[in-house]
Amino acid sequence: WTISQVQQGLPIFNLSFPGGMDATVQHELPSTDWSVIFRPHLLGFLVLPLDNAMAIKWWLPGFALMAACYFFLVTIVPKRPIMAAAVAVAFFFSPFFQLWYLPVTLWPAAWSFLTMATCVWLLRSPNRMARIALATLLGYVTVTMGMGIYVPFIIPSVLVALAFCIGAVFTVRESDRFAPVRSRIGAVVPMLAAGGVAVAILGVWLLTRLP
Fold first, then answer.
1. How far apart are CA 27 and CA 149, in angstroms?
2. What confidence tens digit (pLDDT) does each residue in 97-136 have?
């Protein structure tokens, strides 16, 4: 499918089969549609030769999974960076991901780790720029995950992240035992706002592809 897209000039409708098929919905295919902006593993096809672009498509989701896992682990166990790196690599090589090695299986797990790490950072860090950057990145990856549209992999990742974030917000640490719950909820507003924008973008994407 990917090679046929390149041969046809990255069209929105792939004409390999009679009647054509919307290439922006299934199979994670490169195209010149605006939605490819939110699929970073496909951006290489716009500027690189086929072989190089295919390498990016293959490796970037896996790297994102390891990076997000590492970021989460060093966030909650900051004094164990080597352990975090080892666990991140081991997580990537787990049989489940190696058997189902597709962007639609890797991005949801990466999103879950990024969401949990972002939640902790928002609760602990007063750095405004870091908070905005993390929330923006999370919103972007939310759209990336959503456009994969494979719900069986999205739902478990969302449930894990949701449970963790609720626990993080309502668990009172010694350092903030006098901080009201309202202030901790307010701390994660950037993450909620980013999620709202991501849902709006996904809504537009879905509405323009209803047929």
1. 10
2. 999 999 999 999 999 999 999 999 999 888 889 999 999 9
Of residues 58, 55, 168, 36, the one with CA closest to residue 23: 36
9 close to 29: Cβ distance less than 8 angstroms: no
Tokens standing for 120? Answer: 């902790």
Amino acid at position 117, single letter: A
> Which of 13, 10, 12, 107 has its CA nearest to residue 50?
10
55 token code pair: 């390498």
How far from the centroid of its chain's Cα atoms is residue 108's Cα?
Answer: 6
Of residues 33, 35, 26, 37, the one with CA closest to residue 2: 26
The predicted-structure confidence for 3-35, as pLDDT tens digits, reads as follows 999 999 999 999 998 888 999 998 899 999 999
- Indicate yes or no: pTM above 0.70: yes
What's the chain's length in residues? 211
